[in-house]
TrEMBL record:
Record-linked Pfam families: HTH_5 (PF01022)
InterPro entries per record: ArsR-like_HTH (IPR011991), HTH_ArsR_DNA-bd_dom (IPR001845), HTH_MetalResp_TranReg (IPR051081), WH-like_DNA-bd_sf (IPR036388), WH_DNA-bd_sf (IPR036390)
Matching NCBIfam families: HTH_metalloreg
Domain of life: Bacteria
Domain HTH arsR-type: 8-103
Key words of the record: DNA-binding, Transcription, Transcription regulation
Stated name of the protein: Winged helix-turn-helix transcriptional regulator
Species this protein is from: Olleya sediminilitoris
Gene3D superfamilies hit by this protein: Winged helix-like DNA-binding domain superfamily/Winged helix DNA-binding domain
Length: 109
């Protein structure tokens, strides 16, 4: 993995980059959509819905969890996932603000 010079960028830039990095993979998008449509689904359900292997699903879930977008609920030996709506709204706000401010800046030119 390459070295990123995150310290060169402000908190807002790093936050947008973190969110969009996670959202930048189609498997993660499919997983987030599936979880949103099937609240409290587990890894096996994601394997069936995406066709990806269990280890691959687990890796992607880990990346999605890094930005706090998932809630975990333990039932027996299984983990079930749902979308953290507060964090979803925060992610939407941050990314939307970036695009709105960029558009405003473009219109000033």
């Amino acid at each position: 993995m390459g070295f990123s010079k995150r310290q060169l960028f402000n908190d807002s830039q790093n936050q947008v980059a973190n969110y969009t990095k996670v959202l930048g993979h189609p498997a993660r998008i499919a997983m987030i959509q599936h979880i949103s449509e099937n609240n409290n689904c587990n890894c096996n359900q994601l394997v069936k819905s995406t066709g990806l292997s269990q280890p691959t699903i687990s890796q992607h879930l880990g990346e999605i969890r890094k930005i706090g977008l998932l809630k975990q609920n333990v039932k027996g030996k299984n983990l079930f996932y749902s979308i953290d709506l507060d964090q979803l709204n925060e992610c939407r706000r941050v990314v939307n603000d970036f695009f709105v401010k960029t558009q405003i800046n473009c219109n000033k030119s």
